[in-house]
Amino acid sequence: MPAVTRRQYAGAAVATTITGALGAGGTSVTLTATTGWPSTAGVTFFVVLSPGTSLEEKCLATISGSTLTLTRGQDGTTAQSHPAGASIYPVFSRQDADDANRFLSALTTRGDLLTMGSGPDPARIAIGAANTVLTSNSTDASWATIVNANVNASAAIALSKLASSTSSQLAAIISDETGTGSLVFGTGPTITPAEGTVGAAHNGAGYMGMPQVVVSSGGRTIAATDAGKHVYVTTTNSQAIAIPANATVALPVGTTIVIVVANGITGTTVTITSDTLRLANSSSTGTRSIAGNGMGTLLKIGSTEWIISGNGVT
């Protein structure tokens, strides 16, 4: 049901007359002429009969050809008897103005929206708060904070427009994390996995190669930054590569370091302080030696335990 009845208007309708008398109870008249008159059948408009006389009356009319069907005594007037030849023409009525005012008066504040309320009557939806969206419950509209339920599942929305997401939320929207697709990062993100899952020792196998740490004199105490790299002993004989106690440098289990001794260099040793260094395929523990052109791989297998293997390792 509409809030108001749609009526038709014609700005160039000429005044005309009725061909026969109309009694106070009559509901139909025939027009002498219809030039410029509203012509859509079934759509109402207002007319005035006998204007400017004591018989003046407004009626609601529909037209079919030159015949009007009337609802009598409108707009504060009463039904009268009109003689043949009485003047008649379309008019804009108080009811027309009131219908328009019902809509205009419903709006009070900048940003208001017009809707149809119950009744039915025009109603106002006040402007919503910042960052809210207009939603519907299939009966009425209202403003709401943007949540997942307000977003069409097929809509393409940039992640930059959304609030920060947790890793579990991100995983929930990636459909091919175990498929054949790729999750591509433009500038290689820094990924810090939780200890005990991938482990902080992931760098040990994470380099494309094995970056080099050169030791040319004075020996070296293994540092956390050496994980996943190779220590290259050059130039000077009798250098010691020391593995620090776990209490001093807590390298994670799984840390891998390769020690390479250059050609002709002698006396290179791998020492350990309070922790244990085991020789692979042996029950021997403690300080190991690596010959020139030798290579030993250190692997941390416990919080205070290492194992070493390789060519030239004794």
Structural overview:
The protein is mainly beta. The protein folds into 2 domains: 1-127; 204-313, Jelly Rolls, CATH 2.60.120. It contains 2 helices and 19 strands. The strands form 4 sheets. Strands 11, 12, 13, 14, 15, 16, 17, 18 and 19 form a 9-stranded mixed β-sheet that branches.
Provide a concise account of the structure shown.
Helices cover 6% and strands 32% of the residues.
Layout of strands and helices, then pairs:
Elements: E1 16-17, E2 28-30, E3 45-49, E4 57-64, E5 67-74, E6 87-91, H1 94-106, E7 113-116, E8 122-125, E9 132-136, E10 141-145, H2 167-173, E11 212-215, E12 220-221, E13 230-233, E14 240-243, E15 256-261, E16 268-272, E17 276-279, E18 288-302, E19 305-313
Instruction: Determine the mean pLDDT.
Output: 86
User: Helical amount among residues, as a percent range?
Assistant: under 10%
Largest sheet: 9 strands, mixed
Strand content: 25-35%
**Distance, first to last CA:** 98 Å
The dominant shape is rod-shaped
Radius of gyration: 47 Å
Number of strands: 19
Number of helices, counting only DSSP H or I runs of 4 residues or more: 2
Looking at this protein, list some descriptive labels.
mainly beta; 2 helices; 314 residues; nine-stranded mixed β-sheet; 2 domains; 6% helix; 19 strands; single chain; six-stranded antiparallel β-sheet; Jelly Rolls
